[in-house]
């Protein structure tokens, strides 16, 4: 079975303190919570193996996205940052 590039083949939960910040051009930043870390297929090799990356899986609107998804659907110039939220302790 050949798995398409961009497919998520595994996901592990993320700690609640991670966010993704997206912006395009002069638009306002959009902060999205990271819900997991996804193994994403990037390419197929000639020997039948695949190249993968680990990407944040995050909620944007009512859908789960990966960085690959967001870049694919971008109209261009997407700025993408992974951040840990500042945790204040009393």
Write a brief structural summary.
This protein is mainly beta and 90 residues long.
In percent terms, what proportion of residues is strand? over 45%
Order of helices and strands: EEEEEHE
Helix run count: 1
Rg over alpha carbons: 15 Å
How many β-strands, per DSSP? 6
Main pleated-sheet profile: 6 strands, antiparallel
End-to-end Cα distance: 53 Å
Instruction: Provide the residue-averaged pLDDT.
Output: 86
| Gross geometry | globular
List segments where confidence is low: pLDDT < 50 over at least 5 consecutive residues. Answer: none
**Alpha-beta classification:** mainly beta
User: Percent range for helical residues?
Assistant: under 10%
Topology:
Layout: E1 8-13, E2 18-24, E3 30-44, E4 50-60, E5 63-65, H1 67-73, E6 78-84
Antiparallel strand pairs: 1-3, 2-3, 2-6, 3-4, 4-5
How would you portray this structure in words?
The chain is mostly beta strands and 90 residues long. 8% of the residues lie in helices and 54% in strands. Strands 1, 2, 3, 4, 5 and 6 form a six-stranded antiparallel β-sheet that branches. Strand 3 (30-44) and strand 4 (50-60) form a beta hairpin. The N and C termini lie far apart (53 Å). The mean pLDDT is 86.
């Amino acid at each position: 079975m050949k798995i398409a590039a961009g497919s998520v083949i595994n996901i592990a939960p993320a700690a609640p303190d991670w966010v993704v910040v997206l912006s395009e051009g002069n638009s306002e930043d959009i902060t999205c919570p990271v819900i997991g870390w996804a193994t994403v297929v990037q390419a197929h090799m000639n020997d039948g193996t695949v190249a993968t990356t680990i990407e944040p899986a995050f909620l944007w609107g009512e859908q789960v996205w990966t960085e690959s998804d967001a870049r694919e659907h971008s109209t261009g110039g997407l700025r993408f940052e992974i951040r840990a939220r500042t945790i204040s302790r009393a």
